[in-house]
Amino acid sequence: MEKEVESADGSEELRHKKLGFLPQKELIFNKFLPYADGIDGESESFLSEIKLNLSRAVLLRELRPGVVTWTGRLIRYINLYGLKFAKEDHIKFIKLYYDLIVIPGLEASMISLFASTLSSLLKKQYLISPTELQLPWKPLYKLMKTILDSPYEDVGLYYIPASMDSVLRTVVKLCRDYFPIEATEEMLSEWRPLLCPFDMTMPMGISLFAAFLPTKAEPKNHQQSYLLWFDEFMGLWKMCHNKPSWEFDLLLLFSRLADNNIGYINWEPVMPLMFSKILNNFGLPVGYRNQRGQIGHKFDLGAVVTWIVASLGGGSSCQDHLDALFKAINSYYHPSNVGTWHTKLNDFLRRLPATFVKRLHRERSNKKSWLTPIPENAKLTEMDITRFVESVLPVALLAMFSRAGAYEASIAFHQLAQLRPELVIPPILERLYSALDTVTEPHRLTATLQCLVSVIRPLVRGKAYPEGPSHVLPLLMACLPAIDPNDIRKTLVTFQLVTSIATLVPFVDCSGAISQRSDLTEEEERVCSATAGFEDFVLQFIDRCFNLVESSSLEQTRLDKAKNVEKMTREESLLEVGLSSTIASLAMQCSGDIFDVALAKLYSFVGGRAFEPHVAGKFAAHIVGSVAKVNTAKVLQTFLPNLLRSLESTLASDDILEEERQEDELMFNLLLLSELMRCPGTFLLPFADQLIRVLDRALMLKAREAYLSSGTVLGNLLKSLTTIYPTDFRSVAEGYDRALSEYLPIRDWGKPGDLNNLQIKWHFPNKEERFLAEKLLKRYLETNLNKLDEHADQINTLSREELQRTLNHTLDCILGAGAVLPPWQEEPISMAESSVRLALPLQFSHADAEHWKISFSNGKHVRLTIAQTLFKVVRHLLSSGSDDTFALFGTISICQMLLFHYGVLKEDFETHQKNFQMVKKVLGSNLIGRKADIRALMIDRIQLQHELRVLESAFTLSVVTPTMHMILKDLVQLATSQYSEVRSRAQGVLSYLQRQSPKAYQIIMEDLLNGLKPEASHEQLKGTLYILAEHSSKQRSLLVMHNWSVVKELWIAVARILPSEKPSIIQLTNASLPHNS
Fold first, then answer.
1. Which of 179, 214, 238 is the last residue of a domain?
2. CB within 8 A of 948, min separation 6: which ones?
3. In this structure, what is the dihedral angle of CA atoms 254, 259, 262, 265, given to the nearest 10 degrees?
4. Which of 150, 179, 208 represents a domain boundary (last residue)?
5. What global pTM score does this model have?
C-alpha cells in the first residue's frame, strides 16, 4: 500500500511542548518517514539510556568497556537523530568529552574516539556561543605536545593511530572559539620565545599559533584578540622572502583571521605583496626557456582563496589585483599549455568561485548566530558580484577544453551560474552549438556538454536568464546524435544532460495553453509552443536507446558455449546505469499522454523479442524495469500477462529443466521478469498465482545461469513485497495531468521542493503483501532447508549442482525478505564485565512487532531455522572434504546475511549515498542551501535516512548469542579451510563482524589457538594468522586487543609457531611482530 506523509509542524513551541525541551538541531528528515510518530519516543528512550549509563560509567571510572561502549551509542544517536537534546545537555556532553580527552596517560585509541565524538558535538558552532561555554586551552596544548611529539612512537613503544594528527587538529579548530578572551595573551607569553627566524623552533611556534589562536572575537574585544599579534606577525611575514617553511602556517592564520573578521581589518598595505607571493607560488615558467620561479614551500590554496574572497568588497582594491592576476595567468590555462603547474591552477579555478558563493550565502542568510556580523559597508554589492564573475569567466571558458581542466571548469561554472547566469550560460551555449556542428573534435563536444550539465538548473529556471527555457527543446534535439555506441564517454555525458533536464522539467505539452490562457508573457508563449516537441523528442530518444541496445549485443564466439559465462565490461556497466536512470527520469516526468506513446513504442521493441541476455538483454530489461517503477499498473498490464504465459509454456516441458544451457529467449524472459519484480508489491498481488506457477518450474532449472536468474526473480519479488521505499520522485507532487487553464507546468521548471508540502508517498507493506511473502518463504525457503537438512543427515544426498542451486535460492530468500525476518530472541552471552548495562534493548520504529510477524510452519523462527540447518551443512561439507567451492561460497554468504542483513546492504547504502552527493553537486545550490533542493533530491535524502536507520538497527541487533556463537565457529572453520578463496571470503565476514561486535572474538579463542598448534595444517595456520593480523587496521588486530589474558595466550602461541619454509607463513609471522613489540 502507498502511505502518504504530510510534513509535520516543526515549530519550536510545539517541539518544546512535546519533548519537554527544545532540541538543539534535530534531523528534519525523520519527520517525513512513514513511521515518524514513533521516532520521538524511540529517541527519548535511547537518549535517557545514553545519559544514564555514560554518566554512571564515568563516575565509576570504567573507561572500557563502559564509556567506550556508550560513546559509540552517542555517535549513533547523533547519526540517527542529529543533536536532539537540550542546550544544557549539549554543553554537558561537550565538557564531559573535553575532560575525557585530556585525562593524563589516556591511551591513544581512546583519545581518538573521544576526540571524534567531541568534534561531532561541536560541529554546529552557531548553536552555542562563547558566553555559554568556555574551555581551557592549556590541557589541549599539553595533549597535542604529548601525543604528536612523543619520543616513544619511533621506537615502537607507543602506537598512535594514523588519523590522530588530523583528529586532534580538528578538535583544536573547533575548541579554539571557546577559549577565554585572555587566552591570546597567555599563548603569546608561552610561545613568543620560539619566534626566531634563524632558529629551527620558528616553524613549531608559528604552527602552534596557527592552530590555537582564536580569531572569532566580538569587535569590542579585538584589543585583547588579534591586535595583540597582528602587526608583529605581519612584520615577520614581510621580512622573509625566501619562502620559509613556516610561511605556510602563517598564511593559514592570516586567511582565517580575514575570513572571521571581514570588514574590520585593512589589508590594503599588503595587497600587492600578497598577490605577488600568490603568483610566485604557482611556480609558472617564464619565457621560452621554461625558467621557473623560486622553488620553496608552497601555500595552501584553500588559505589563498579564503584570504582573497574575504578581502573583496567594501571598496578594497582586491578585485583589481585579482583581475591583474588572472590576466597574468590566463595563457597558462590554454589547452595547449600543459605542465606541472596545471593541477594547481585548475584547483585555484575550482576553489575560488565556491568560496565566493560561501561568503555570499553567509552574508545573505538569516541564520541566527553569535559569529561576528559583517558590517553593511563591507558586504558584497551587486557590482562586486558582477566584477568577480567577469573576472573568472574568461579563464574558465579557456580551461574547459584543456586535457584535465573540464571537471574543474564545470564546477566553477556551476558556482558562477548561481551568481550571474545571464553572463555564464550564453558563452557555454555558443560553444556547445559550435561543437555540435563539428564532427572532427568530439572532445570539445564532451567538454561543453559536461559544463552545460553544471549550469542546467539556472538555464531551465529562467529567473535571471529569461531566454534559458527556450533553449531546452533545441538542446535536447541537438544532443540526440551524441548518443553514439562508438563513443561511450560522449554518450554518458549526453545521458547526464538529458537526465538533469528531465529531473527538472515536466515533459508536458503546454502548447494548448496559448489559446486557453491570457496571462502568458511573450517568452512563456514561445516556450509553450516549443513544448509540443516533447513527445517527438521522447520517441526519438527511445529510438536512439534502442539502437544502442542492438549495437551492444554480445555475439557468442567460443565453441564451448556451455561454459561461456560472459560479464559486462566496465564501460557496459556504466552504460547500463546511465541508460536506465535516464529512461527512469524521463518516464517519471512525462505527462500521461506522452507516457502512453512511449510505452507503446517500448513494447513494440521489447515485446516478443529475444535479446542475448548478457549485455543487450540487460540493457532492454533495465529500461522496462525503470519505466515500470513510474506507472506500475500500466506497464505490468502491458508486459506481464504475455511474459508469464510465454514462460509457463516454455517451462512446461520437463526436458527443458535438465538442459545444461538454456536458449537466449528463456534467459531474457527471466531477466525481464526479474526487473518487473522491482515494482511496488501491491501491484504484483493480482499476478501471484501465475508467478508462483512460473517460479515452481523456473527454480528447478539445472543450468547455472538460469537458476541464478530465477532466484533473482524470487528475491526481487520478496523485496518488493516486504521493504519500505518512496514511490514518487516527480518534481511536482500533484502531478502533471491537470487542465492547462488551472496549472501551467512550464512555471515549475527547475522549481525547488517545499519541505512544508512534500507529500511524499511510501510503499509500506500491507497484510496481503506480508501474507504472500510468508507463503513464498514457506513454499521455497522452508522446502530448500528441508532438502539441506536431509543432505547433511545423508538421508537424501543432493548432487553438486542441486546443492549449489539450493544454497543460492536460500540466499535469494534471505536477501529478498531480510526486512521482515525477525532476529532470534536469545539471552546474550556476556562478553565483558561491566558496572553498567552494555546491551541496548532498543526497538526501532520501522520494525514493529507486526512488521516482523513472518514465521515458518508451526511458528518456527525463520533465521534460527536457517542457522541451525546451515550449521549442519557446513559441518557435513568440511568433514567430507568437499571440493565444492561454490557451495562453500554460498554458506559464507548465507552466514553474512543471517548476521547483518535486515533489509539494506551496507554496500548498497554507500553507493546510494555517493550517487546522492553527485546529483546534489550538479543540481543543488550552495548559494541558497538545502531549501533550494528539488523535490526528488529531498525525497532521496529521506530515503537515505530510512536506509541508515535500517543499517543501525542491524548493528544494534548484532549481539553475541548462542546462535551467533555457532555461526562464528562455522566461519572460523571456513576461514581456515583448504581453499584460499574460501578462506579469504570467510575472513572478510569475520573482519566485518569484529567491527560490529568488537568483543565477539572471545568466544572463538579456543578455535584460533587450535589453529596455531604444531599439529595444525598449513592452511589452518595460514588462515588463523590472517584472522589474527587483520591487515585492514592495526587497531582491530586481535594481537593488540585490550584483554591481557587473551593477549598472553595469543602471543605465546604465535611465538611457539614452528619455523616454516613457506614464504606466506614467514611473511604473516613477520607481519605480526610489530604488533607484539
1. 179
2. 79, 80, 909
3. -10
4. 179
5. 0.91
